[in-house]
Design goal:
The structure holds 2 protein chains of 2 kinds.
Chain A lengths: L17 E6 L2 E4 L5 H23 L5 H19 L6 H8 L2 H19 L5 H4 L20 H10 L9 H4 L1 H12 L8
Antiparallel strand pairs in A: 1-2
Helix pairs in contact in A: 3-8, 4-8, 6-8
Chain B lengths: L32 H19 L4 E2 L2 E2 L1 E4 L4 E4 L2 E4 L5 H20 L2 H6 L1 H18 L2 H9 L4 H30 L1 H9 L6 H21 L1 H7 L1 H9 L5 E5 L1 H4 L18 H5 L19 H13 L6 E5 H4 L9 H22 L4 E7 L6 E3 L2 E12 L5 E8 L6 E3 L5 E3 L4 E11 L7 E9 L5 E8 L16
Antiparallel strand pairs in B: 1-2, 3-4, 4-5, 6-7, 8-10, 9-10, 10-14, 11-13, 11-15, 12-14, 15-16
Helix pairs in contact in B: 1-4, 2-15, 4-6, 6-7, 6-8
Amino acid sequence: MKNDKNAHIPPDTDGTPIREHVFDGIAEYDKRLPNWWLLTFYGAIVFAIVYWMADQHFPHGNDQTRVAGELQRIEAAKLESADANLDDATLWKMSRNPVFVDAGREVYNTNCAACHLVSLRGKSEMATAIGPDLTDNEWLYGTGKPLDLLATVNHGTAKGMPAWGPVLGAKKVSQSVAYVLNHHKEPAE
Amino acid sequence: MSAKSIRPNRDSVTTIRDDGSRLFLHPADAHGRFTALRRWSGWVLIAIYLALPWIPVGGHPAVFLDIAHRRFHLFGLTLAFQDAWLLFFGITGLGFSLFFITALLGRVWCGWACPQTVFLEHVYRRIERWLEGDAVARRRLDAAPWDTTKVIRRGFKQVVFFGVSAVIAHLFLAYYVSIPELWTMMHSAPGEHWSAFVFVFVFTAILYFNFAWFREQLCLIICPYGRLQSVLIDDHSMVIGYDEKRGEPRGKAGTPDAGACVDCNRCVQVCPTGIDIRQGLQIECIGCAACIDACDTVMDKLGRDRGLVRYDSQTGLGGGKTRWLRPRTLVYAVLMLVGATVATWAATTVRPAALAVTRMVGAPYYLADDGVRNQFMVRLVNKTDAPARFVVTVEAGGQPLTQTGFNQVVELAPLAEQVQPLILQVARADYAGPFTFRVHVTDEAGTYALDREAEFTGPHRSLLGIKSEASQ
């Protein structure tokens, strides 16, 4: 015991029980945990029960119904903005609405003008331009009906026009189509 | 419950009674050089904590973690969310610094610089001392019945504690919303900024609970750094310890053959975590040095040398010589230097803009009548809060090509980002196969530059129907 630096410390004499396990000669007292610590422990148990009850047994909807509800909400939002509601007449109407046309001009100048030029005239204006003229009445894909244009912008073409639908989203695509249509006359019925 | 009843032992935590209830400590006042120095350094630290959101550096507060705009202003350096990877180097650098300091100097952080200690010792305990008197008076008040005087005195203290907690919580919020915004929020109704209001309220409650009641329990039972330090120090690290060879056996002054310790128990009375430093190094010790001052005062009175309790290493206390240079400190120092170097280097790579080049969806290349075409989307982000104008150029190492898109300066609003097509075309006659090129972005003034490398893909030259007689 000569080398024991703490030989002067009196051993614990309050009769605290010692746990049974011993690791490498190290034993463990069986002391009571702090009350505040026990409170957090029991509090967590109570919380778990309350949460379990509220979530599983008296639910405002369980996970499945909540997920289903959320999916419906997303679906509705998609339908609202998607081209499902668009028809030729609506797109023509958009193309005469200055709010749509202004928004469309911005989208067009950022994304489309690189190939079709700011003037929309593409190869007709400059032979080295990549995209064709969008102001004439010759269409490489479809017949120039607004919905054909929309499909071309959304899905792209084999000659290099990328599919802009997933990049821009339905709203910006319809705005850009409205801007292009703004350069055309609506055919008389 | 007198001071005499506190008899710490190494087998249990003093502040937890056998029945699990809390023994609320009333540490006695210590006077001396470390107490004075600690009070000074504490006030300096508090002044720094409070000043950081006020001092403008480069047009922003010195520290402004602008969550709303996802911009982090640190001493003139502005970081955007895109720079979050720097956090890795910042945190590892800080971690290694703490390792190094701990191995060398033990728990100086805990005793001198940790906000828990600084606010507890220099704000809350000072208020308590001022309102309720010294340790003896506070213990007497504890034991007194709950009469009107006690209710008023204790109640007033709690109100003051809550008020101080509210002030600290508000100043903490200022780190995230800046002082002017905080001032505006404080002037308007809580309903206009619920999240900030709830944050401050919850944070105030946590601070109040912690500093009014929880106190040393945080250091003893919750703080991971306190536990971690046990494996960071060794026998040569500086700690606060008791010189057992000089002190033992204890005895009243004048007892023959007695050591220097007169067993006055002052070191136990002043301890904020309720340990007896004479029982050796313990995990509860936060290195506050109160016991050094307490013991020195007694030694001065007895005309004995100071330093029975002192800053020293375990080896030094045992009569050996402390080695400062040892593998542990050297390794930690190297790690710290590596961390600091990498963090500094990483910070210098931060640019006020971000650039990304991705290939457009669709085919990797297109064969047009007049050439081979690759289509890219270029994303530009202006990370500053001023409008910026960017010049985008393509460098292809002499390869002739036609660039479409980005033919003019791109103007971006503060914090704005833009994605734009970049179409590159190589005429059939010039095409010699795939090659790499660089997209190069500078601001109009040319103060910084960003580069991204990309691949121009295409078929083998021979597949274009060009006779190979031109090939080298």
